[in-house]
């Protein structure tokens, strides 16, 4: 697999922050972006991952132009530097959290120093900490909310794991922000 930026320009508020960058990253190689603060390293990674779109130029995956593709339809992900603070996370779990939550992942991981600090594991990398985050910040109220509407982890969890999650939710009240309907005065 290869990921290529082909003469990419990225602008923010009309000013070019990345100017005519071309590079290719190949599977099995180690590539490092070095540069001072605000030199565009993160912007380049966000373009490669599909989190941002270039003003001009193309992003290619295995030679196929994916510039306009939705980030979820690409086979590329970006793991933020923040995960260096969580060396106990498997790369697949860190990648899933980065893809699902971006910089908000640090909020759900908090000061955890081990997997045990994230609480009960429900399978497929879903932990009590993530469930609490979803209930508190994204108004999840049921296992169905979490495994189908918020994460699609239902594709990876067994019926017994989903039932265990539902039991945990029923037994644990998690304070949350007010759901959107209540905020707008509807019930």
Give a topology summary.
Blueprint: E1 2-12, E2 15-26, H1 41-49, E3 56-61, E4 64-65, H2 91-101, H3 105-109, E5 121-123, E6 126-127, H4 128-137, H5 143-150, H6 159-171, H7 180-183
Question: If you average the pLDDT, what whole number results?
Answer: 85
Return the CATH architecture of the largest domain.
Orthogonal Bundle
- Radius of gyration from CA coordinates: 19 Å
**How many domain units?**
2
Helix percent reads: 25-40%
Query: What does the main sheet amount to?
Result: 4 strands, antiparallel
Instruction: Tell me the strand percentage band.
Output: 15-25%
Tell me the total number of β-strands.
Answer: 6
N-to-C series of helices and strands? EEHEEHHEEHHHH
Please report the first level of CATH classification, the CATH class of the largest domain: Mainly Alpha
Query: What is the H level of CATH, i.e. the homologous superfamily of the largest domain?
Result: Alpha-glycerophosphate oxidase, cap domain
CATH topology of the largest domain: Helicase, Ruva Protein, domain 3
**Secondary structure category:** alpha+beta
Defining key terms:
disordered C terminus; 2 domains; Helicase, Ruva Protein, domain 3; elongated; 187 residues; 7 helices; two-stranded antiparallel sheet; alpha+beta; Rossmann fold
Structure description:
The structure is a single chain. The chain has 187 residues and is an alpha+beta fold. It has 2 domains: 2-73, 3-Layer(aba) Sandwich (Rossmann fold), CATH 3.40.50; 82-171, Alpha-glycerophosphate oxidase, cap domain (Helicase, Ruva Protein, domain 3), CATH 1.10.8.870. It contains 7 helices and 6 strands, in the order ββαββααββαααα. It has helices at residues 41-49, 91-101, 105-109, 128-137, 143-150, 159-171, 180-183; strands at residues 2-12, 15-26, 56-61, 64-65, 121-123, 126-127.
